[in-house]
Amino acid sequence: MAATRPFAGFEWAIAWRYLRARRKDGGISVIAWYALIGVMLGVGTLIVVQAVMYGFREEFTDRILGANAHVTVYSALYEDANGNRSRAITDYDDLTARVAAVPGVTRAAPIIRGQVMASGNERNAGVEVYGERPEDMQTLPLIANPETAEGDLSRFPEGIAVGQGVARELGLRVGDFITLISPNGVKTAFGTAPRINDYEVVYIFSVGRYDIDRTRVYLPFDEAQSYFDREGTADEIEVLVQSPQEVDQYYLPIIEAAGGQNLVWTWKDASGAFLSALDVERRVMFIILSLVVLIAAMNIISGLVMLVKNKGRDIGILRTMGLSQGSILRIFFICGSMIGVIGTFLGVILGCLFAYYIQDIQALVEWISGGQVWDPEIRFLTEIPARLRWQDVSAAMLMALGLSFVITIFPARAAARMNPVEALRYE
């Protein structure tokens, strides 16, 4: 007799008949539905969590790279002509030109940085001032092309640009005046008088990252030099590179161009540890949520064990008709694996749709609950980010299918090893 072809049509027909049979007929339809829904929800949850965590990392990185320097060049500590310790860069134009000539550098600009108190409409807030040349402001990606903006960036030489969070905190609109108060002012016989200047708000930007929108303002470079009493110097040279994710490859060329008296600091030095922690957390969450899928897949075992018990007589008859142990094993393997495959497929669809429409779902939940689901003050980003990657979706799908197949083998083997004589003894 020729051997039965593996996964022949009759094996699929018998498996499908067993799956859709009602409980009173010895089927496991209710338990199969529970197992299928469990796998579906587990896979969907895993995909959504991975998409949100990866999206948070990427959005956070994009905000860092879009509004901050990829590489910062600053001076080593030295004593100036008056014997004071300083990090001021006096040859900033020459240094900027040398750094800009490094292959892969797309932008190099001198800046002035300082922290002051801002006042407007009888409100106060601490802000960080960045002094930028007007032409350099046009080349800052998330400032020149922010999520939202008010005013005209071309008027930047006439006033000041402020983050949306600063404007909201101080109740400012375009055309209003903001007062900057620095404690490091003019020294007099009665002590140091604070420096107080008023500037017209000509541009309000929002980059979508709370800690930038809430604290940052931009002054024209010359005005910042005058305000902070740093004429003829710059605090830093901010550099943008072509491939910021591979910023380490630019480190040596930039430091060689900068010279021995200057130091280099990359964005990974500032935020790399935080991003690494996010990567570790994402991997750990994948492992934890895989256990949820495993628990859901365990329902397949319970269902198949009951199915094997209920179909003992059928197994005995099929064996006496000539079916091999392999055929019996494949019939019950198909029963369990179909639950896992269908549940995984539906879970992938559910997870991808949830991740794609997560902003609308967030708005709906906030509308229903009347509360705030995502607090930008804690998470820095203004909305829940989600980015689907085929690697994450494939990993979740393969993991769920693998668990479903492995778990199904054990009760299927038990059915295949059932002695037909014992199965029919009391029939």
From TrEMBL:
InterPro entries: ABC3_permease_C (IPR003838), Lipoprotein-release_system (IPR051447), LolCE_TM (IPR011925), MacB_PCD (IPR025857). The keyword Transcription does not apply. Coiled coil: none annotated. Keywords: Cell membrane, Lipoprotein, Membrane, Transmembrane, Transmembrane helix, Transport. It is a multi-pass membrane protein. Pfam families: FtsX (PF02687), MacB_PCD (PF12704). Residues 287-420 form the ABC3 transporter permease C-terminal domain. Belongs to the ABC-4 integral membrane protein family. LolC/E subfamily. This is Lipoprotein-releasing ABC transporter permease subunit. It comes from Oceanomicrobium pacificus.
